[in-house]
Design goal:
The radius of gyration is 30 Å and the shape is globular. The protein has about 325 residues and is mainly α. The protein has 2 domains: about 40 residues, no CATH class; about 190 residues, MetI-like (MetI-like fold). The chain has 12 helices and 2 strands, in the order H-E-E-H-H-H-H-H-H-H-H-H-H-H. It has a two-stranded antiparallel sheet.
Length: about 325
Amino acid sequence: MRPQTTDLGSHPAAASVPPPAGPAPAGHEGPGPRRVKHGDGRLAAALLSPTFAVLALVIAFPIVVAVWDSLHRTSEELDADGLVVQAERFSGVSNYTALLTGDRFLTALWNTTFFTATTVVIETLVGLAMALLMQRAFRGRALFRASVLVPWAIPTAISALLWRWIFSADGVANAVLGREILWTADGGAAKLAVIVADTWKTAPFVALLVLAGLQLIPDEVYEAARVDGAGAWDRLVHITLPLVKPTLLVAVMFRMMDSLRMFDLPQVLVGTRKPSVETLSQLAWDDAMNLRYGPAAATASLLFLYIALAAFVFVRLLGADIIGKDER
């Protein structure tokens, strides 16, 4: 008789048999967490040290210097020979107190907030519409996509000069409207001119980012929605916007931070010391040009805190994934 054999690999109890004890083969790592070898931390620190040094030089050092200058005030004094010299004295928080109680700073703060809120909302809507249009297949789509890049590629100062010519007293805007409006003087017309120029300049940036997010949505999702009877509006609200939301939030985040530090567009388009359009960046620049380095540094420090606080609130409330969290 042939001896009867049993196939342990197919037996139900075979899966519960523990593996034989003993050291694992060389080069084989178990299922547990990988052990950090001795010296890996030092190697990582050595490799990252140039990056940390550059960040400290270009980010941390200017912030520390700005805060230090904001606590001092430059004054003119007479030296022992009777000559006028500039001296720097510690003034504490007097620069901040003078700013927060001054009308010019509060007006610049309001203008900065107003421009940020209006331009970001308008640019988001216009950029989303442009991205939806660029995604469609139509004759001349490549030319349309290339033309969208033109405003974004033009430097902001050059763009401001172009719009200054358009909004001049005898410019294209007044010729089209048939009225003589002083767009670059002051008042509400100057505000509108800045909003129009900024929207034309930076709405393509939002459109390009949103277009990149739209191209990641599979066509099968829209086909299934059409089969289920979903119309164009339903597909936009229930499919496009939820799936493109992460990209859209990142675009809005970048535009918000860029608008809060707006300087060159109103500076070139309208000019300096215009209460209707003066921003915090313009105020800091004007103080620095007039050798008021303490107030200028204080304004820059408050603007930095404002941008950081706005970014923190934006991320916390809307949940924008800026750093790309790992979902594992």
